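Lab notebook, bench 4. Continuing the backlog of folding jobs that were queued last week. Each job is logged with the same field layout so the records can be merged later without manual cleanup. Today's entry covers 8-oxo-dGTP pyrophosphatase MutT (NUDIX family), a 152-residue chain. Filled in by technician R.K.

JOB TYPE: sequence-to-structure
TARGET: 8-oxo-dGTP pyrophosphatase MutT (NUDIX family)
LENGTH: 152
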Amino acid sequence: MLDLRERIGNDLLWMTGVTALVLDPSRTRMLAVRRADDGRWTPVTGIVDPGEEPARAAVREVAEESGIAATALRLVDVRVLPEISYPNGDRAQYLDLCFLCEADADQEPHPADGENTAAQWFPLDALPPMNDRFRDNLAFALEDRPEARFRR
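JOB STATUS: finished
OUTPUT FIELD FOLLOWS
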């Protein structure tokens, strides 16, 4: 990424991202992480590495950010996120692929990298404040429908 930014500067960069909605094995709790940059609680999110399968990226990000081993079960949502500008002036826009994942066992999460200050399980009926996109993603995932949702 740094090499690419050296060539394009702060110009808009199109990226593929993943959101991982991780449920515990009983499917009564969801994993959330508290972001170090703005303090918001979110599901695990991250960027797909070049050539990486998106479902594997979701599972990798869960392990990197929370120490939880998980399995991606299905694609829940596909959407283009609004353009964002970072404090250093870099601009990006993401195609976000949201996956429903399940923890492989009852595990205790922890902030496993510097991207988050906390990682914990929340009962599905007592989630921390999250933006509408994440709440919508979770509601759709809990409907347990086999198809992914797309914007038309």
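OBSERVATION: Strands lie at 12-23, 29-35, 41-42, 44-47, 70-80, 84-85, 91-103, 116-123, 149-150.
SIGNED: R.K.
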